[in-house]
Amino acid sequence: MQARKKYILIAFCASWLLVFYFGGVQIRLLKLLSRKKNEETRQWPLWVDRHLLMGYAHLEELQNDSDPHQGSSKSRRETWSNIYKNSRCRMDTCFDFSKCETHGFRVYVYPPEKGDRVSESYQKIINSIAESRYYTVNPQEACLFVLNIDTLDRDQLSAQYVPNVNERIRGYPLWNDGRNHLIFNLYSGTWPNYTEDLGFDIGQAILAKASFYVEHFRPGFDVSIPLFSKEHPQKGGERGWLVRNNVPPRRKYLLMFKGKRYLTGIGSDTRNALHHIHNGKDIISLTTCKHGKDWEKHKDARCDRDNQEYDRYVFCFFAPPLPHCFICSGLPKL
């Protein structure tokens, strides 16, 4: 009798343990499935004008980092590692502050050499430095050095490309592996990959560059600058437009963007995805397909309408400063 009670008690406890075990597993499984279900059913907000927002960039394309035009991830890493050999540079490791102690912040520009080709944009940078109170003609007084070589356009297919930069800078006694030097760049790499290959080793120099990859930007050391055209004035002309501090500012246009849209290769994902923000009223977002010799071979259904809208507006029409600057990512050339 005692043995029978003992077996019944053991069976009862075992059944309760099984209930607790499998019940807990089922509860955890239900929570996991419900969480996955919520994640799968989570969608973008249902905009009122959603039927008008016909995107040209598909979700799979935006989520897929691989691009056949950019080569493999391994090849890109190898290219970038060769370009940025001093990727750990910071002001306290790659900048000699002792040069700034005696004469303060003074900037020396290398004198031009015979036969040098300098673009209009780079000449404006040099002129701005030379006309500033920080400029010095004595390299012994300088805290910062700027090359006389035009490094703005490093696309080998460009007419502005300057070859043999590595050989030239290595012959400069002041180069010192780029320490305390500032290099300007707007365009780098070439079609179709547009890597950040400048075609020479910047060493420990500070890089002031447009269209920086966030992986290569050295915080507190490099300088990210906007991409500007050769028509951009060196100095401002008329007085500023800020009369009173109105928030929000009372202006007709809230935001404006005007640029090219590439039909092949990389560079227009963002512009394709955001074309719908253009309303022709206070938000102007314009792109054109007209670039290159054979753009018409690759034109899509939007090209004719986009080109027509693009030609309707000129930059001088938006002369008063706008409250927002919209820089829409694209090719380094844009």
Task: Describe the 3D structure.
The chain is an alpha/beta fold and 334 residues long. Strands 1-2-4-6-7 form a five-stranded parallel sheet, with helices on one face. The longest helix has 40 residues. It is extended, with a radius of gyration of 29 Å.
Which strand order do you get reading across the main beta sheet? 1-2-4-6-7
- Please estimate the helix content: 25-40%
SSE run = HHHHEHEEHEEEEEHEH
Uncertain parts: 61-70
What radius of gyration results from the CA coordinates?
29 Å
The overall pLDDT average reads 75
The tally of strands reads 9
| Biggest sheet statistics | 5 strands, parallel
**Shape call:** extended
Structural class: alpha/beta
Provide the descriptors you would attach to this structure in a database record.
alpha/beta; single chain; five-stranded parallel beta sheet; 10% strand; 334 residues; 8 helices
Q: What's the SSE blueprint?
A:
Elements lengths: L1 H40 L17 H5 L9 H11 L7 H4 L12 E3 L10 H11 L13 E3 L6 E2 L10 H6 L10 E5 L1 E2 L17 E4 L13 E2 L30 E6 L8 H5 L9 E6 L14 H10 L22
Parallel strand pairs: 1-2, 2-4, 3-5, 4-6, 6-7, 8-9
Summed up:
With 334 residues, this protein is α/β, with parallel strands linked by helices.
